[in-house]
Amino acid sequence: MVSLSDYLILSSVIFCIGLVGIFVNRTNIITLLMCVELILAAVNTNFIAFSHFLGNEAGQIFVFFILTVAAAEVAIGLAILTLLFRVRGSIEVDVTNSLKG
Amino acid sequence: MMEQIYLTIALAPLVGAIYAGFFGSLLGRMATTIITIAGVLISTVLSFYVFNHHVLEGGEVFNQNLYTWMQIGELNVSVGFLIDNLTAIMLVVVSFVSLMVHIYTIGYMHDDAGYTKFFSYISLFTFSMFMLVMSNNFMQLFFGWEAVGLISYLLIGFWHHKESAVEANLKAFLVNRVGDFGFLLGIALVLMYFGSLDYVEVFASLGNVTGITMLDGASVITVICILLFIGAMGKSAQVPLHVWLPGSMEGPTPISALIHAATMVTAGIFMVSRMSPMFELSETALIVVMVVGAITALFMGLLGIVQNDIKKVVAYSTLSQLGYMTVALGVSAYSVAIFHLMTHAFFKALLFLAAGSVIVALHHKQDIREMGGLRKKMPITYWTSLVGTLALIGFPGFAGFYSKDMIIEAVHFSQLPFSDWVYVAVVIGVFITAFYSLRMFFLVFHGESRMDEHTASHVKESSISITLPLVALAIPSAVIGYLTIDPMLFNGWLDNAITVAANHASMASLEANFHGANAMVPHALQTLPFWMMVGGIASAWVLTLYKSQWADWIQKKFHRSNYVLESLYGFDRFNDIVFVGGVKKLGNFLWKVSDSGLIDKILVNGSARFVGFIASMVRPIQTGYVYHYAFFMIVSLLIILTWVLFAGDNPLLEL
Q1: Which chain A residues touch B621 with a CB distance below 8 Å?
Q2: With an 8 Å Cβ cutoff, are B624 and A97 in contact?
Q3: CATH for A4-88, among 3.40.190.10, 3.30.2320.30, 1.10.443.10, 1.10.287.3510?
Q4: Burial of residue B479 (number of CB atoms within 10 Å: 0-12, 13-18, 19+)
Q5: Residue A23 sits at the chain B interface (C-beta within 8 Å)
Q6: Global pTM?
Q7: CA distance B43 to B94
Q8: ipTM > 0.90?
C-alpha cells in the first residue's frame, strides 16, 4: 500500500530537483523553464495526493487549473525566449543579466 | 483755518515735486521751474505767516492728528502736526533757505541735463523736511527722517556717471543706516515703555518711566536718549558717524547748501531739542551729547585747515559748527542750539552758495590753490562771502557772533562733569574756525591769481539767479543774530517747546549775565574767544598772504601732525579695515564655511551623496542573474516559513 508520505516524499524530491536545477543551471533558459515545470509538477502531486487521501476532489480540479496556467506560462516564456534570442543571439543564463545593478 | 495753512505749507512743495518729477520732461524747463518755485514760495510766505501767528502774536500751540496712518492693535499711528514756536522757527528757516536754493539752482544747473529732476528732488526734500519738523509723533518724525535721508542719497549721487559720487552716496546711506538703527531702537523703546508714540503723551508720562531700569541698572530714559542721540549723530554727522558728510560734497553745490549745511544735517539738533523734556532727565545722556559735540567741534575744525577743495573746507566747517550746536544741547542750552542752528543755516547756506558761484565761474574747478584774486572779478560773491565768513567766525555784530558766543558762555556756566574740557575745546575751536575760514577766503579772493590763462580770461560775476540768493542770505547772516538773540533766548520764544530742568543752570546763568545785544559787542573785546578769533584771522593772513612760504615750512616741520590731519584721523581707513574689511571677511566666512561648506557640501550634496553611498553598498546584490534572484526568493521564503512555523510569537508547529 502506497502511503501519503510516499507521495509527499516523491513530490519533495521532484521539487528539490527543480529547485537545484534553477540554482545550478548556467547554460540554458529552456532548462530553467523545464525546472519550473518540475516544481509545478511537484505541487500538483501534492494536490492530488492530499485530495485522494482526504477524499476531497477540489484538489484534483485545482490541478487542472495549474496545468492550464503552466501551459500558458510556458507559451509566453518560450515566446520571450525567441525574442531574447533574436536580440541577443544567445539564451545562456549567464548572458542575460541586464538587470545587474 | 490754521490747519489748512499747515497742510498747504507741507503739501505745496510735494505738488511741485510730483509735477516736476513725473511731467518735467513734458512741461519743459520753464514750467517746471515756475511750478516748483511757486510751491516753495507759497510755503515760505505761509511759514512767515505761521511764524508771525505763533511766535510774534503768541498763538495757541496746534497739536492735532489729521489722518490715521495705521492702526495696529492698541497703537494708533497718525499723521499729525505739532506747531509750536520751535516748529515755526524751523519752518521759516527751512522754507526760506529752500526758496533761495531753488532760485539759485536756476543759474547753477542751467547747463545740466537733469535740470527738472533736480528741481523735483529739492522740492521733495523740502516737503520731507517740513514733515519732519511739523510732526507730532515719533513715527512721522521717522518718516521725515528717512525721507530726507533718501533724498540726500539721491542728490549726492545726482551725477551718477561719476564713480566718486556713487561711492559717496552709498557711504552716506550706509553710515546713516547705522545712526537710524539706533534711532529706531530708541523709538521702539519709547513705544515699549510709554505705550505711545505721540510727543505730548510721551512727555506727559515721563514721570511713570523715570526710575525704571533695564539691562542691569541702566536707566530706561538714559538708554532711550542715547539711542535717539545715535540717530542724531548719524543725521547731524557727529564723530564717529561724520564720515559721510565730507563725501556728500560730490553732489551739486545747491544741495550741499540746502541739505548738508542748512537743513537736513540740523535735523538731529532739532530732534534733540524737541526731546528736551526727556534728555533733561538723563545727566549721562547730556554728558555724552556734550562730549561728542565737543570732539566734533574741535577735531573736525582742525581738518578744515588742511583741505584744499573749496567745498570740503566749508563741509568741515559745517561739521565743526554742528559740533557746537551739539555742545549747546549737551549743556541744556537747547534754545541756544536752535539759535545757532538758525544763524548757521543762513550763513552756511550763503557760504556754500558763494562757493558754488566761484565754482561755476571757474568752470567746476574746486581747488583753492588754483584760485586767488577773484575779489575784483566777482564783487557780489566777494562781499557776500565776506559777510558769511565773518558770521561764521563770530565777528562781533554778525549773526554767528551772538549764537557762538552764547554757546561758549553756556558751556562756561555748565556744571556737568568734563564741561571745563569742553570749554577749552570750543574756545580753541574759535581760533581754528577763524583760521581755516579766512585761509580759504584769502586764498580764493585775495592775493595773486593762480589760475591758468584760459580760466582766468573767462571768469565773470555769476548771473542774477545766483547772486540774488547770495544777497538775500547775506542780509540775515549779518543781522539775524542781533535781532533775535534777546527774544529767542531770554524772552520766551521757545518756552512752550523746550524744557530745561531747574538743576541745569546754564540758561539761567546766561540770562543773568545778559545785558542786551548791544552790550555784547563792546564786552566781546574783553573776552578770550574774541582774541582767539583775531588770532585766527591774523595767522591766516600771515600764512596765506604775507608770508605764504611759512605755511610750507610749517607743513614740513610738522609733517607728522600734517599727516594725521590729511589722513582725516584715519576714520576712513579704520572703517575700511574694520567694518568694510570685517564685513567682507565675515561674508567670505559665511560664504565659504556656511553657504558653500555647510549648506551646499553637507546638506544638499551631502544628502545626495549619502543616498549614493547606500546605493553603492546595496547595488552588488543586484547581479542580474535569474538564479540568484530565485535563490534569494526561496531562501527568504524558507526563513520566513521557518520563523512562522517554529518560532515567533505563536508557532504553528512544535519542534
Answers
A1: 101
A2: yes
A3: 1.10.287.3510
A4: middle
A5: yes
A6: 0.80
A7: 10
A8: no
